Amino acid sequence: MPLRQLTPARVQAWYDELDAQTPTQRAHVYQLLRAIATTAADKKLIPANPCKIPGAGRAQRAKKITPATPAELAAIAANMPKRLQLAVLLGGWCALRYGEIAELRRRDIDLKRGTITVSRGVTWPSVRDPETSKLASTAVVGTPKTAAGLREVHIPPHILPAVAAHLAQHTDRGRDAMLFASSSGHHIHPRAFGWQYHQARVKAGRQDLRFHDLRHTGAVLAAQTGATLAELMGRLGHSTPSAAMRYQHAAADRDKAIAEALSRLANG
Q1: Closest among 158, 256, 161, 146 to 169, alpha carbons compared
Q2: Which of 61, 160, 181, 227 is the most exposed place for a label (fewest CB within 10 A)?
Q3: Do the beta carbons of residue 15 and residue 50 sit within 8 Å?
Q4: Residues identified as active-site
């Protein structure tokens, strides 16, 4: 459709046809159209931005995520194949994204300082084969979308032995060796990893916990330590405060426990 034919009414009609059962995807699609229209308006290709639906670019989380407990994290990891157990621990305790974990190399781990350098991630965009017209996905390594994504994450000391053991037992030699490689030496596709993770979470009694929810778990645990908003943003790689604030709100539920602990102090 020519840009000049975009009107608020047409945008509204298009938005109303989007699947309301996938609110996050719906919000992201609207955000993309709004960004295109904003650029077009800035360049005087259209007189005004026709995307004027209040709140359409924001999505309410479809379900409440219940963070994993430390014991549940350990149980899920224990039910994974040994070469993938560390991936669960890094997802939960370091709040890393799957794409960041799948691209980790030996050179990114500093055992002496206890840090992980996050400077790359892997994605699997779908590309249509011009000959067969079938969609296929190939691993593409790139840098984080924002400068905030480039970060150094300190590893909680209690899982450092697991990191050292993984490097010794499951990672090839060489600085570029992947921490989590497939049997063919390539990146592990999310579907292949997801099948193993699904079985592990069911065995641990947390079939509701998606792998990305481990990042939520790590963020809430970090917030419960008293981390400031700026510290959460740095650890999670967020460029804006809004996302990190969700975890501070979750940590606020601990206020009663804090009050009780203060009384225990007062009573000796």
Answers
A1: 161
A2: 61
A3: no
A4: 97, 212, 215, 238, 247
